[in-house]
Design a protein that fits this description.
It is a single chain. The chain is mainly beta. About 0% of the residues lie in helices and about 55% in strands. The chain has no helices and 20 strands. A four-stranded antiparallel sheet has the order 1-2-3-4, with no helix packed on it.
């Protein structure tokens, strides 16, 4: 799949597996057909590079985050639905809750924001000492949110933004986080060249050096 004019920052499958959304420093999001590799559409509107992209579980919305400090919501046809404003720095990551009703965003401003599906700001989460690099909701019904940041910590939050635990182990910034499909394991990648697997209760299960 060739078409972006600059570095690709993120890719995301649609829930039905038929589409891939990709984001890039070229300020666009592109939608691709998985079966053929054909470019379906280019989503244009961000004023700076796009850092992250995510499909809503019902596939009706695509969320993108950008270094232009905004989050944008698009319909599945590629039309811009709304722009979310509130972060005071680049937005690094977005993640939908499993029911699609909450969107979490992580920013260089050190905060995580929770947004309703219609774009209303629900809550601002603070606790990281520095930029927040990535957020991810667990795929199960408990809907735990996990965040990682430049401060080297991994933080767990309830769906409503209440702090649950802080996991410490990385020696340096933590760049990315993801849940396993069953929601039981959290995987993090850090600047210390390690990949770490954690249990939901905060136990370090495995550490592998890259």
């Amino acid at each position: 799949m060739i078409g972006h004019l600059a570095r690709i920052t993120d890719v995301s499958f649609s829930p039905d597996g038929k589409l891939i959304a990709s984001s890039s420093y070229d300020k666009t999001i592109r939608l691709w057909d998985v079966g053929t590799g054909r470019l379906i559409s280019s989503l244009v509107g961000h004023m700076d590079g796009v850092s992250s992209v995510a499909f809503s579980p019902d596939e009706q919305l695509i969320a993108s985050s950008s270094y232009d400090h905004t989050i944008r919501l698009w319909d599945k046809g590629g039309k811009l639905v709304m722009t979310l404003l509130g972060h005071q720095g680049a937005v690094n990551s977005v993640s939908f809750s499993p029911d699609g009703q909450i969107l979490a965003s992580a920013s260089e401003d050190g905060t995580i924001k929770l947004w309703s599906r219609n774009g209303g700001l629900l809550k601002t989460l603070t606790g990281h000492q520095g930029a927040v690099n990535s957020v991810s909701f667990s795929p199960d019904t408990q809907q735990i949110l996990v965040s990682v940041g430049e401060d080297g910590t991994v933080k767990l939050w309830s769906r409503n933004g209440e702090p649950i635990a802080t996991l410490i182990g990385h020696q340096g910034a933590v760049n990315s986080v993801s849940f396993s499909p069953d929601g039981k394991t959290i995987t993090t990648i850090g600047n210390d060249n390690t990949i770490r697997n954690w249990s939901r209760d905060g136990r370090l299960l495995e550490s592998t050096r890259k």
